[in-house]
Amino acid sequence: MSIETAYNILYMGSLIIFAILIGVMLVRSVIGPRITDRILSVNMIGTMIICCIVILSRYLDEGYLVDVALIYAMISFVSVLIYASTYIPAKPGRRPLNGRKKARPKAVRRAAARDPYEEPDDPGPVYAGREAEEAPRAREAWRRQTGRTPAAADTRPREDSIRNGVRKDVRNGSRSGSAGSGSGFTKVPKGGGQ
Amino acid sequence: MRKRFKKWVMGRTDVMDRILDDASEIYDQPRETIKKQRMELVREMEERPGYERTLEAEQKGFYLIYHIVAVISCILLIGVLLYTVAMLPRYGEENVRADEVVERYVERGLEETGAVNIVSGMILDYRAFDTLGESHVLFTALICVMILLRVDHKNMRSEYEDYYTVLSDRYYSLERDTIIRTMGKILLPCIFVYGIYILLNGQNSPGGGFSGGAVMGTGLIITAAAFGFDRVDSFLPLRVSMWMTFLSLMFYSFAKGYVFFTGANGLENHIPKGVPGAILSGGLILPLDIAVGLVVAGTMFGFYSLIRRGNIGGA
Amino acid sequence: MTGTPMEWIRFVLTAVFMIVGLCSFICAVLGVFNFGYIMNRLHAAGIGDTMGLMSVLVALMISAGFGMDLFKLIAVAAFMWCTSPVSTHFMGQIEYFTNPELSSYLKLRRRRGDTEET
Fold first, then answer.
1. Which residues from chain B sit within 8 angstroms of residue A70, using beta carbons?
2. Which residue of A173, B23, C60, C118 is surrounded by the most CB atoms within 10 Å?
């Protein structure tokens, strides 16, 4: 047999095996019980697709498909980066996104404090999909086992200005904003109703 | 009359003033009374017995019709498109109507456009009108997302910022890791150079304006996510970003408009075609690639910035 | 058997590296499925990202010979080796910040500022 057929068999075989592996990783992305399992499987699928594209570029003897693989690597990296910036919670007291480096003026803080709407409670960690109904059971189980409550979010004493200006009697244990309060920020015609 | 028009442009009155009764009275008052009125209304609504149930009863019928109509229209649209696609000729079959156009592109594309990459020559020379429309669509999409998502911190400060956004991710950035900062310093120059390489090689190898712009937009997103938005705001405030996008779009329109005008009237547009295979070849393809790339990069980063923190240029 | 011995040596080297790469990827996928917790799966996935990808790319570099393709493949390898550990690091961070019962899986050190009661 000639070299061409040998190379072809090698490349085609690798491509088939990679395709099977990608299909298997898809299963993990569906059944993985946590978010991170799914992100991991998508990242691995991306890596395997890079291998497939590069093998194809040698199989078809076209040099520019390697550029496509490089772009794909970049996109998969950016996707994990943005996932991380979504799920890692923000810490109050850090530098704000819009570049304001000083505390807000006192008049604004006082006006904020006079508002009878209280601030919402701290959200816990992020649960997605099926974990949302397991969350209370998981916390209970953990609390029973270890005698401690899970540290949900950053519970350090805040040094942020807005939190110091808030009425202290409603800082903890306040009732969270009800469902109707969300509509209070949109325009409401005078007659009431929706 | 002018006062009403000005108020409408500034967003304080509604066009539907006379139609929605008494709506204009809301905005003619000072900000504090508006806030108080809104809170009173919300409290009234909440304390009314059966509030949730009336809401449900009024909206349930509407949502049912809405869902049914949505599903039916989707199925209709999908059916029509599939039927049209089924009538296309098979791959490789002879099709008298389309073959002449394709043959001309393939055979005389190199000498007429000067680009080795026929696809670039097609989208930026033969069918540049479509690309013009696409660039305008990108820009319009950015404007629409700005209208929907932009949080103007200067004008809306005392209403929205106090509780709703303070504790949210939109207001605070997350911790800057040393790892991502170090990697960013090493990788980001390479990413930007790679994006420019793809842009400049639109006429010689696969690439062109859209992919190069996408890579540069991704580089900007990585900069913003890794180093914080302050870094990007220092060289891309809102003014610069908008002017860059707008000027490249205008350049594209005027340059291509000139070519359309001369081509339609049978005149000769004196744009040199250059040696095929060199970078400065293909007539207008290189400048148009750069324009399209800037529009795409500005749009991509604008979307990310708007969704992440509500505005493009900071504060 | 057509072709010079040099070409056959090149083919054999390509095949060897490619098979090594494929086995690494198979080990990685098997690891992701067999381990129980996400942190262990990250270890298994790292095998694919580094050794598997590198072997496949070295195989293709040998097959491509000296030319433009070689440098592009080196660029792909360098980029993936730079960004893949960062992705793994961020996945670990996501897991740390979104799992309330992390202490039952891992042994955590207390950070400065952690309180034990909410």
1. 194
2. C60
